[in-house]
Design brief:
18% strand; 7 helices; globular; alpha+beta; Atu2299-like; 7 strands
């Protein structure tokens, strides 16, 4: 795709300059996404944790944390998906959350893949993207052995098994930052001992 200048006509055909049209639409903040405030607070708390701690490669954990916290806050029609993604011409195994079919993917801001840092997605909208982007989810390719092992574990088991790597502490911290009082975090996590990720294939 050719680079679009800020003062060029917007390629969407609106007749406006790009800076007054789709550049502005793409360069959204969390506050501009239409959703309930509680969902925004939970997702933004996970995003802030990644940014504040330079937390890299945490897609499998953070997706599970967001899922559980949203469920505990009363949201339904949620799923955690795991599959191969194609982002910036790089293929890698990845996990994300979907709410009513819309993607919530914030860990792409700090991946393990060649130091790739990309705008996150919140309910299918790019946050802070200065240009049109294309992320392909569910590429038709097998997961590596490590990701297959993760898919075989429930969300609850994955977090509890990783306690020595601070997975439970990270869950607690994100919840605290979102203003959620958990009580016994492990008891909450154990409620998701039978909830598994969905393997994603052939999506766009």
């Amino acid at each position: 795709m050719n680079s679009i200048g800020r003062n060029d006509k917007c390629p969407c055909g609106s007749g406006l300059k790009y800076k007054k049209c789709c550049l502005k639409k793409n360069n959204l903040t969390f506050d501009q996404i239409e959703c309930e405030d509680r969902m925004r607070v939970i997702v933004k708390s996970a995003y802030d944790f990644i940014k504040d701690n330079d937390y890299r490669g945490g897609c499998h954990l953070i997706s599970a944390v967001i899922y559980i916290l949203l469920k505990e806050d009363g949201y339904s029609d949620l799923v955690v998906k795991t599959g191969v993604v194609d982002i910036a011409d790089c293929l890698f195994d990845h996990s994300w959350v979907e709410y009513q079919g819309k993607k919530i993917d914030i860990t792409v801001i700090n991946t393990l893949q060649k130091d790739i840092k990309l705008p996150p997605i919140f309910l299918d909208r790019f946050i802070g993207a200065a240009k049109p982007l294309s992320y392909k989810y569910g590429v038709n390719r097998d997961l590596d052995a490590g990701a297959k092992k993760i898919v075989s574990k429930s969300l609850g088991q994955y977090i509890l098994d990783g306690e020595s790597q601070n997975t439970v502490a990270i869950f607690e911290r994100i919840a605290q930052n979102a203003g959620i009082k958990l009580g016994d975090a492990k008891e909450i996590i154990r409620k998701y001992i039978d909830i598994y990720r969905v393997l994603s294939r052939d999506e766009t």
